[in-house]
């Protein structure tokens, strides 16, 4: 690569560099020891020096120096690859390959060498060359790939190094890189860690030993920070078979966060594509940068902390202070500005939070800057409140951006001001009074100050008359409601009356939703529930309808109007409980895994007693899915929902821990899971709400309604208070970090389940060993996942995006979740198929794919792939020949076949030449009888089969022969096989001719036809593809007119019988084949194959080279 010219003293560098080429102006040098055979000591020492010294001392093996005559100073201007520094004083570019450095040398000779002779001044020469090189660098650096990094030149160096070392496809984007150590047992290996969009890679070269490590993100099952005997802080990567530790990072926190983000994005994009939507900046994997990942992490924290819509995008985060009138001072914190919100969070957790939807904002103004109020702004809202922010850095650009977004929000959704106040509230004594006092001091709209005081009020229980209103405010569903006038009504009109699987499921569950409550014992309540659930299923078909949504919606309808209940359901399903309500309930399972870790942290004695916490997780799953509504009396469970709408999922975690702590003694004494379930169910069924104004309504599962002994009840207010006091220290950031950590494990668990189910179905049907099937499945899955991001790149490359069929669909049956297309199949075929035919392999792979693609959707499943492979490796000879036969007739062989231009497709060959069997004339009669009997036996077997394969035309037969010839190439018995196939081919051509003549005469019986076929003449020549002999006349050469091509046929039975006559061919097809060596080679080469799609604009099909 070209690099910025910097001065180098050649005198001190001669010991480490050797001159390879030189001219009057340039010198090409090689690093001493590089490329020297025999592992010489010099090379090992220099390699060790390059590996041990820090990144500023590392060099590439080649460089080009600008030599100005009469000067002792040289400028290195190009290197083969990228690192930095030739000695400790000057930083220079580095390289790795001789080919690249020679390209730069050739460019210099062709473009600069002759031009420099016109300069008289040596300074002019140096300036001219430096200017040219800088221009080349600027041109290369102009690409977005380098511009988006903090240090484009160093990143460009690392990118070249990454590409040269690991030889990934061009689409594999390097995100960032770090210097670190990789531990092998107790031995650290210093090297470089490269993080790309699909792989974690490590490279080390130390004392002549090179180490390359490639781990796909999709194979990582656990990513955690840990410690070993020597270091207190390392990053551990766990895959199915290995654990690897990395340490000695300058900033381990940063590295771990980036790795977490990459693993999370990749796994969810590839394995959880059922409902996962990437941020707009991450939609194109090839453009993901380190900054994008950091921005995504910040966006996710922002949306989780304030529980905002998923599509909300963060624009600015600034430190500031907010005037809080209740404390009569400014509270230090941070302002978050997004598309439609301005939010504030105090640095002291829980002290004060504020959410300001821009649709509520009337004005944003800058105030005069003073020493007491530096850089202040005032944000005024509709309810005649104002929020004063001070100490804002870059206030001008911040306010400018806020005003632009405020204008957009008001233009898209005009604000209808409503100054009326709801003063006619029912009174629930002390609670109502406390809430009214709070509204006066802290605000009564969505823009209220959210402090520890309001959390205590929520924990006491929200008054019945305020519950629906406060749920709308805390969840910010009120903003969605006001921003979408008429939306719900239109959804109801569009969705009602339509009948589908979702509506059938809804109808089935309508009467199971709070059947004990009077509101749902009549058609009015049932109809409202039906409309809300059907409208939501129509709005979000990805989720549609899931069980437990009916219970949640019925409770929402008790405290909110129908349209308000709809928007509350939207808030819960789409942002407060992400990924809970879908086919695999991934979100709920992730939170169960997080809950297990919290149990181990906060209740270690219980965790130690219950060896398998998954039993508790299976019990607690309904707690999370229904927010305790299905397992507590309703009047108590709604208090849990109050806390959930204010604090989000954190409230459910801490309440779950409080429930387990209250029952720890009973759980520790339980003998099995069933008894533990009874302990928890009995406790939860007796949680009461003494402040509830209405009559008690028990949970509809009540296990112990007819207990003889009274069970002491627990007040929900006491339980919630205990949960906040004992387990309320978990922050949103900690929970989101735990979710990210455990999502990897949950997704990989689903993948393992899928794999085991697929193998359980396939193993009885094939003869391939189970351990080999596992490796085949991993290769198949890797190909299926690899295409997903690459296809998106191709669709962006073409002007008209091409439709893409889903390769990974978790909603399909296990055996059909992963599928591959023709390109992926061709790649796998070349890697693992025993039928390698040189350049013909790709054509054979295409025909095999067409044969296996039964439903013509251009995708095949693992079962079809491995069944075909099983025939190739373990099938009997007749099964292998039958497969080859089917590969050379339609639908596998088409008129537009890749090999259609073969000269063999032109006028058909004549076979009136005699055939040599290598037998004496006395044996000829016996051989004819043997062949005749064989044809009769095969004809009888054919009658027993259910479906007869069509006969093969001569064009198809020639292609069949060509495949056989290709398969024999480089076989140890190659000559014998060629002689045998030539003999068999000529015999079959004669059989076809005999059959053609008997068919055209129409006077011979089947027995006569068989006699004619078996008694073909015995010629002298053995080459089917040789030209006609010189002695033949023109009339003889046209014995086979072209129009008769359709009549020339041979059957599978003829081919098999003929092949059986040659022992060498029988030995070839019956010899044992080893799949293990193929699999080992495939695992190595699956990452080293360069893709060619982007360079093949005119041909969308991928062409793979021979392996």
TrEMBL record:
InterPro entries: EF-hand-dom_pair, GRAM, PH-like_dom_sf, Rab-GAP-TBC_dom, Rab-GAP_TBC_sf, TBC1D8_PH-GRAM1, TBC1D8_PH-GRAM2. Residues 924-955 form a coiled coil. Residues 461-648 form the Rab-GAP TBC domain. SUPFAM superfamilies: EF-hand, Ypt/Rab-GAP domain of gyp1p. The keyword Coiled coil applies. One of its GO terms (molecular function) is GTPase activator activity. GO terms for biological process: system process. Keywords: Coiled coil, GTPase activation, Repeat. It comes from the Eukaryota. PANTHER family: PROTEIN VASCULAR ASSOCIATED DEATH 1, CHLOROPLASTIC, TBC1 DOMAIN FAMILY MEMBER 8 ISOFORM X1. May act as a GTPase-activating protein for Rab family protein(s). This is TBC1 domain family member 8.
